[in-house]
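Annex B. Sample input.
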Amino acid sequence: MTRNTNLRTVLFFSVTVLLFFFSCCEGGREIRKGNGGMIKGMFVFGSSLVDNGNNNFLENSRAKADFLPYGMDFSLGPLGRFTNGKNVIDLLGDYFHLPSPIPPFADPSTKGKKIVHGVNYASGGSGILDNTGAITGNVISLNTQIKNFETVTMPELRRGRSMRVLLDEYLFVVGSGGNDYSFNYFLSNLHSELSLDSFTANLTATLSQQLKKLYGLGARKIVLISVNPLGCSPMVRANNKGQCLDILNQAAQMFNLNLKTLVDDLKPQMPLSNLVFLNSYKIIDDIISHHISKGFMEAAVPCCEVPSLSEGGNGILCKNGGQTCPNRTNHVFFDGLHPTEAVNVLIASKAYASQLQTEVYPTNLLHLANI
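Annex B, continued. Sample output.
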């Protein structure tokens, strides 16, 4: 069996049942808030890793996390975050002393005073490309997320203030791309018709235009979150004899290299901007590779009960009302794809204050906030 055939088999059995299933601080230690910075709020774009409930409000969306055990360690319960507690956006909000979680755009109540500290447009299952996410039903593509910011949120923010000055006070966080590989390129005939290099180049070029669009709308402080180690998710390992799938990780690394390069390449084209590349791939890969020393006991299987294929599951989402591991702080993954709050704590802390350019390039978010 060829590598491409094996890859397609692994992903096919892990993901295609989505069509049916969706319808029916280190080691988790308490996060310490930082000194903040000149940040009034955040505008968030991307997929499930940064989604905080937009898909809850979409008809025919099968990518939802609005049930327990999701949110079991979150003060407000299962509102749509694909983890047990806070996601990276929530934790960054803590560091910057934002008074409340960033509200989801799709919530009809997200307007007026509720948007003062930003809006979250991210949609689980979506991607940089418009056709990514079709397998999960109705999702909001990155292009549409940006349009929602432009046509709905911006008019409200304009009232009584200079738009340019106002947006200088916000972080624009973009975390997308993983689904374009897992649920698009490798699950379609694209991988046999288009080389991985060509697909990645097209994906990068598309994202570059989207970032320029945000810049044209006033974005000045932009955070680009890398794609995670796709090949080491429990979903993939469960169908690959417990091993990581190298080709998926290679795809993620290829895209991430391009993403980091964009930080430098876009600067001359967006002269008033400051971009930061957050290498969550490296942070999570380091945790997986050295999980014991970093306070984690399990790095390969999910914390929550993920139904098997024979049980009608898909290897990704937790069972509705299912059991979980007794200690969520020592697991790397909460479900078949998404990390636990404990891992999100580490990512957020490094994003905020790491001095390593291998983790945040060219600087951390505390410095970015004070530029």
